[in-house]
Amino acid sequence: MIRSRLFFRLFSAILAAVALFAAAIYVFSVPLIEEKAYEIELNASRTILDNVFVMAGKIDGSLEDRRAMTEEAYKAQLRNVVSLAASYLDHALARAERGEIGEAEARRLAFDGLGAFKYGNNDYIWVTDYQSVIRSHPDPEFQGRDASRFQDGDGRAILPTIIAIARDRGEGFHTYPWQRLGETRASEKLSYFIDLPHRGLVIGTGAYLDDIDREVERRKAEAVDDLRQALRNIRIARTGYVYIFDAARKMIIHPNPNIEGQDFGLLKDPATGRLIADELVEAADSDRPLSYLWDKPSDPGNYAYEKISWVRHFKGFDWYIASSVYVDELKRSSAVLGNRLVTIALALMVAAGALGYLAVDWLMRPLNRLAQTAEQVQAGNLDAQSGIRRDDEIGLLAEALDGMVRRVKDDILTLDSRVRERTNELEEAETRRRLILDAIPAAIAYLGRDEIIRFVNRGWAELVRQDAGPLIGRDLKSAIGRFAHNAIQPHMERTWAGEEVTFSYSFPHPGGHMVTTRNTLIPQRAASGAVTAMFVLALDVSAEKETEARLMEAQRMKAVGQLSGGLAHDFNNLLSVILGNLAAARDRYGEVEGLDSYLEPAVRASRRGADITSRLLAFSRQQPLKPQPVDVSALVREVSVLLSRSLPSSITITVPDEGGECWAIADSNQLENALINLALNARDAMPDGGRLEMDVRLRSVSDDLTFDEPVEPDDYLEIRVTDNGTGFAPEAMTRAFEPFFTTKRLGSGLGLSMVYGFVKQSRGYITLDSRVGIGSTVTILLPRAAPVAMDGEAEAATPSPALWQGQLALIAEDDADVRAVLRGQLVDLGFSVVEAESGDEAAELFGRIEGLSLVVSDIVMPGISGIELAARIRAERPAIRVILISGFSFDTSPGADDLVILRKPWEMSDLASAIARTAEPSDAA
């Protein structure tokens, strides 16, 4: 025992000394050598980059000098050409002054001669007078043309500017866009010109700047080729190199021919997944190099080699100049030296270990075998035996260990195998059960009779917004809260009594919306029949409930709209009869004293009825609309001016500032009515005064957004009308857009319904946000339009009814009362009238009646419709005027766009205006 310890200590001391010596060499020498060698190579790469950067700077400076020299040479040439041309012009005009030829002939010869003169790259001479009329130009398009309105990109007049400079200074240079001869695309042109005050002319010539640019670019290309040859001879370390790319990620110079001249912007760094070009640009002019993976010239296309690059941005050419070297080459020299030192240290350690081993092996061999056997047994190898047979203490120990291992093997081998198999089976079953329950799209929990949670799946944990692990072992009330527990307690008591219970429960989500679940409680009975636990199954049906509610609301609004439209049509027929007969009574019996006091209220009431039908048509989306691009910002400001005169002074109106144009596709009149309705509603909600805000802005919808219905992704114009009034109660919010529903004592209930119908008919969306005591906001989305120049429309004067005396008209109307009113009005206007009760009857009559000049037809009637009747008349007898009448909206069927449509109810003046708007017939049919 003592000898074993002594030999162990000696052997350990030898190994420790050798190890410490080798470690000291490695720790203090190898890292320092590797660091210095790496630093030297890295600095060399940076130095080479700086030298190349200086070379690029010299090239840039040379090119700038070259450009300046080229531009000065062009200017000198322009001066010479203009001087020569001016001399020629003076010589030609002097002949007229000497009387040799006439003045007109002299000017023609002078200007034609200058117009035919060409030099350089198809350059020419031009002459203009002080009024910007071009007197000489090689392009006939400009010869003699007034060019005072020709402008450059900044909106400045070109020739007036040149003339002003020439007359002020006598001569000058000016740059402006102008097309070459024979081309349509304008290029920047530098012109030199002089003033000829005694002639009243300005003469000049010019050169296109792209000619100068091509000369400079040619020199730049030569310089880049020289730089490319120089860089290909530069090597950093063994295979490192310098390369250049531009801001467009195009490789300008690179030793790899597969990359040079190519766009490498899509190449990714395999290590980071980012674009290598972006990483190089970010590292430009920083104090740190970029590390990334790249290929080698000897192995092109294999981007698996780590590189380090210094990058600098050369702004003159917008280049990125980079020096690149492979990391393994930087580390090669230091790694070689370090490996040698490590090899020496390892050799010393191996030699010392070998000597120590020889010294103690003869003593430690049996102990090692015994220890190895113990380790094998500890690792679970019960078949291990030491095999030592000695007559000393080591032999006794080995014999005892071998016997013990054999007995333990016999006792536990079978039991251990069975336990392991059973454990594996249980673990696999539990894993499968957990995966299945977590994958089910439902929340599942298992409760004991004491309401302690025994199991939850992932869905139930997410439903109560907690982790599944901490929920196990907690009582149900602490997990879901006292309020929720009290709500479901009666259902749980029924389940504990043995009944399977299904119920719904709603609770607020932290996101602000309500969550509705359908819950089923299933009792679990013991063998005795007593309920000992229960299963809880919960399904989130919030989306189904919301979809069902939206569908029912949409169907209800559609049904109300259809009913409203039908009522409006029938009511319009009645109003047409009433208004027509009232007007006839006024015309025929107007001299009866006191009659007008009875007729006028009836007329006003009928017109109010017409306004109600108009609102009903707006809600049912049958309102006559003329959608066109509208500057909504300007319209809102105009509406605010009208409102400021009618709203109380206690209400402050805020509208968009001038200058911002926001255009939408809508009927401007109906949009104005909608805004006024919303403003009047806001006024009624603020009896004590307040703030009314009308805001307009552009809005792009790309994500999910819901107003009265889901909003289609597109570009829209958003209109927001906000007040700080009394607001809507929750029960009133759901019915706010229904016709005839109102919260005001004297309200008609058609204001918001008209706005709703107008928005939906305009292919828009609307939503109402309101809180009691805080205020309301109505938000409208309308299709966005591009700004357009709006021209005023001239109103046509209505001709005198005397123009129609003796003409023949055909009426097509299925309602006898409406037909009678229409007949009386046409007779009063001077027409003779023929009647038809259906479209089919009218179709027969118009083809057989001679001298027919006008057809007035209802759109909806038995037989063919008014639209079809109008189409037949146009095809067979186009000289006949056609007017359509309707109690619905203006028809938008194909072929009806340019027809005159008279809306029910109407007055005789409306009918006369409609006749005047029709095309005058060429002759009697």
UniProtKB/TrEMBL annotation:
<feature type="domain" description="PAC">
    <location>
        <begin position="501"/>
        <end position="553"/>
    </location>
</feature>
<dbReference type="Pfam" id="PF08269">
    <property type="entry name" value="dCache_2"/>
</dbReference>
<keyword id="KW-0472">Membrane</keyword>
<keyword id="KW-0812">Transmembrane</keyword>
<dbReference type="InterPro" id="IPR000700">
    <property type="entry name" value="PAS-assoc_C"/>
</dbReference>
<keyword id="KW-0597">Phosphoprotein</keyword>
<dbReference type="InterPro" id="IPR001789">
    <property type="entry name" value="Sig_transdc_resp-reg_receiver"/>
</dbReference>
<dbReference type="InterPro" id="IPR036890">
    <property type="entry name" value="HATPase_C_sf"/>
</dbReference>
<dbReference type="GO" id="GO:0000155">
    <property type="term" value="F:phosphorelay sensor kinase activity"/>
</dbReference>
<dbReference type="Pfam" id="PF00072">
    <property type="entry name" value="Response_reg"/>
</dbReference>
<keyword id="KW-1133">Transmembrane helix</keyword>
<dbReference type="InterPro" id="IPR003661">
    <property type="entry name" value="HisK_dim/P_dom"/>
</dbReference>
<dbReference type="Pfam" id="PF00672">
    <property type="entry name" value="HAMP"/>
</dbReference>
<dbReference type="Pfam" id="PF02518">
    <property type="entry name" value="HATPase_c"/>
</dbReference>
<dbReference type="InterPro" id="IPR005467">
    <property type="entry name" value="His_kinase_dom"/>
</dbReference>
<dbReference type="InterPro" id="IPR000014">
    <property type="entry name" value="PAS"/>
</dbReference>
<dbReference type="InterPro" id="IPR003660">
    <property type="entry name" value="HAMP_dom"/>
</dbReference>
<dbReference type="Pfam" id="PF00512">
    <property type="entry name" value="HisKA"/>
</dbReference>
<dbReference type="InterPro" id="IPR011006">
    <property type="entry name" value="CheY-like_superfamily"/>
</dbReference>
<feature type="domain" description="HAMP">
    <location>
        <begin position="361"/>
        <end position="413"/>
    </location>
</feature>
<dbReference type="InterPro" id="IPR013656">
    <property type="entry name" value="PAS_4"/>
</dbReference>
<dbReference type="InterPro" id="IPR036097">
    <property type="entry name" value="HisK_dim/P_sf"/>
</dbReference>
<keyword id="KW-0418">Kinase</keyword>
<dbReference type="InterPro" id="IPR003594">
    <property type="entry name" value="HATPase_dom"/>
</dbReference>
<dbReference type="InterPro" id="IPR035965">
    <property type="entry name" value="PAS-like_dom_sf"/>
</dbReference>
<feature type="modified residue" description="4-aspartylphosphate">
    <location>
        <position position="858"/>
    </location>
</feature>
<keyword id="KW-1003">Cell membrane</keyword>
<feature type="domain" description="Response regulatory">
    <location>
        <begin position="808"/>
        <end position="919"/>
    </location>
</feature>
<dbReference type="GO" id="GO:0005886">
    <property type="term" value="C:plasma membrane"/>
</dbReference>
<keyword id="KW-0808">Transferase</keyword>
<dbReference type="InterPro" id="IPR033480">
    <property type="entry name" value="sCache_2"/>
</dbReference>
<feature type="domain" description="Histidine kinase">
    <location>
        <begin position="566"/>
        <end position="786"/>
    </location>
</feature>
<dbReference type="Pfam" id="PF08448">
    <property type="entry name" value="PAS_4"/>
</dbReference>
<dbReference type="InterPro" id="IPR004358">
    <property type="entry name" value="Sig_transdc_His_kin-like_C"/>
</dbReference>
<protein>
    <recommendedName>
        <fullName>histidine kinase</fullName>
        <ecNumber>2.7.13.3</ecNumber>
    </recommendedName>
</protein>
<dbReference type="InterPro" id="IPR004010">
    <property type="entry name" value="Double_Cache_2"/>
</dbReference>
